[in-house]
Prior knowledge:
The chain is mainly alpha-helical. The chain has helices at residues 3-15, 31-46, 54-63, 68-75, 80-93, 112-127, 135-145, 149-156, 161-172, 180-183, 194-209, 217-227, 231-238, 243-253, 271-286, 294-304, 308-315, 320-331, 340-361, 367-385; strands at residues 22-24, 27-29, 132-133, 191-192, 291-292.
Amino acid sequence: MDPARDLDRNFVAWVTPAPVEYSMNGYNFTHSVRKVLQMAREEAASLGQPYVGTEHVLLGMIRDDECVATAVLKALEVDLGHIRQKIEDTVRQRGKGGRAMRRGDLDLPYTSRAKKVLELAMMEARELNYRNIDTGILFLGLLREEKGIAAQVLTDAGVTLERARAEALRLAEREPLSKPEAATSRAGRYNFTDRVRQILQLAREEAARLGHEYVGTEHILLGLVREGEGVAAAVLTNLNVDLEAIALVIENRVVKGKGGRAPGPDFPYTVSAKRVLELAMTETHDLNHSYVGSEHLLLGLLREGKGLAAEVLTDAGVTLEQARAETLRLLGSEMPAEPPEQGRRAVLLTRMRELVGELLGSAAPDAARLIAIATELRSLLDELAGMR
Length: 388
């Protein structure tokens, strides 16, 4: 029995496409990643190489025209055909190619560098506070590895880790992590208006129309624009924002997918979209309002600051302060008399209680979740310490 060979067999089993999600060390590998790794084995076999290296993983990504990694490369204006040719030339120059293997004989071991890429992808996911690893995260693992053929070819093409990370986060708008129910589970104390619920339904429809199987901040803004009659739409119009132009900018900025799912309540929300809903509730609390309306949703989009919606609104000249002032003017109200930070303090304390409650209520939380809770608690404590 060869222990090393057994390890490789276990590794292949872990990343082989299966009817259910595979996970390792608390991280889920998406169907797209497993599909790419299957195609990587096929690429290795077609080149007559009895192993899967970083170059084959990159070739697998290039073959999957719908994955995040391919979208990142296209956004960075990288010629995919040139990348493939460069890899094949490098393989031939190094004399590593051989007779093509049968497609059925794909029980190929992974090189130490290919395994390192998976480890670095998990590290990247941990640093970004992700539980799922998509092809964008896997792509960042290829770049972080630095020494394999894939990293060398990408570097020669002008791709850097920093540029790739920024583009992956912008395009995919972060791996969908939460169901809509989870995203709004903290809304029990707030009354979401029918208009907001309609906007969120329209956001799901916009996501489906664009071939996306998640709801991001850009879809929420498109839903808000499409609804067109709420306070938020009036605020934007009064700030001289052309709603149709906003929608057009978003359409030109997003990478359209080929998803065919009908919009439904099970569409997951991205981390940024979930944050928007939380910030909308925070705005409701800070303004002493008893409901969450479209205006609070707009303020949440602006306050989130990093999503595509915030970028588009900022480029249109809209600031959080302007939008909040116009909202209050339209509603005929004024800012609450108590210092804003007092309202924020209550929000922070409530969130801290929720996190502690989660810890106390879980028999054995996984390590990744413990790290996420500890990180968020530290951030909340730092913010509290900075208040008067």
